[in-house]
Amino acid sequence: MASFGNAFSSSIGKKLIMGITGLFLVLFLIVHCFLNALIFFNDGGLTFNQGADFMAHNWLIRAGEIVLFVGLLAHIYQGARLTFQNQAARPVKYAVHDGKSNSKWYSRSMGLLGTLLLIFLIVHLSNFWVVSRFTGIPTHDANGFEDLYSVMKVTFSNVWLVILYVLSMISLCYHLLHGFASAFQTLGWNHPKYNGIVSGIGVWYSIIISVLFAAMPVAMYLGLIK
Q1: Whole-Å CA distances, 4 to 7, 23, 81, 187, 221
Q2: What is d(CA 15, CA 11) in angstroms, rounded to the nearest whole number?
Q3: How far apart are alpha carbons 88 and 136 in whole angstroms?
Q4: pLDDT over threshold 60, residue 82
Q5: Per-residue pLDDT, 41
Q6: Comparing 53 with 57, which gets the higher pLDDT?
Q7: CA separation for the pair 226, 60 (Å, rounded)
Q8: CA-closest candidate to residue 67, choices 23, 16, 14, 11
């Protein structure tokens, strides 16, 4: 048992945890993005509220939330440890070091991007998850479902929150650009024959997910979705 714990406390073990939890979060983002994209039906939020109600009362989804939060906390914790560990390993920068020749800037800035996303996550959860799960939504739509859509409309009427969401989605895009392919490599799921395909999927995934998430608050703020 001690050797198992030591394996996951090592640098490689930490990266494995980051890779596993990162891929889990990648799958979660697909589900979350699909649900939120239901607002583009532009039917006053009826389809979106129905989808949100299903997510809120499905036992499998609720159990998955627990796993999600454990994975998210592990991802944040290990990410912070790796960042501090890397900084401590090189307290004094090399006299000659051309980081651009070895990696992309966002690959070297995962700590910063992750911190920005953590701030966004706290705001996002307080705006929506806490309301839907704990404080409750007093209004209901025409189908009798809790009107989470109206909460979105109120939230995204604030231009500063819209700006925060857009900037956060830019951070998410760069975070995913590095993290997607890196997770596969860390887990040993890489092969010269398929690395290009994985990299391409990662790029398209990062862009599409981030653009869709950013388009939602912008569209609601501009009144493109009623």
Answers
A1: 5, 22, 18, 17, 50
A2: 6
A3: 45
A4: yes
A5: 95
A6: 53
A7: 31
A8: 23
The letter for the amino acid at 221 is Y
Radius of gyration, CA atoms only, the chain: 20
| Amino acid at residue number 23 | L
On the 0-12 / 13-18 / 19+ scale of CB atoms within 10 A, 148 is buried
Q: Does 7 or 111 have the greater pLDDT score?
A: 111
Is the pLDDT at 3 greater than 60? The verdict is no
Nearest to 80 by CA among 113, 34, 56, 124: 113
Question: 82 near 14, Cβ under 8 Å?
Answer: yes
Its pTM stands at 0.78
Backbone dihedral angles phi then psi of residue 93, each to the nearest 5 degrees: -65, 145
Question: Residues 185-194: contacts with CB within 8 Å, 24+ apart?
Answer: 186/15, 186/16, 186/18, 186/19, 187/16, 187/19, 187/20, 187/23
**Distance from C-alpha of 7 to C-alpha of 17, rounded to nearest angstrom:** 11
The answer to whether 186 and 19 have CB atoms below 8 angstroms apart is yes
pLDDT at 208: 96
- The structure tokens 């454990």 sit at 70
In the block, which residue shows the tokens 């979060």?
A: 25
Least Cα distance to 220 among 51, 37, 55 occurs for: 37
Q: Are 225 and 195 in contact (CB under 8 A)?
A: no
Which of 58, 80, 61 has its CA nearest to residue 69?
61
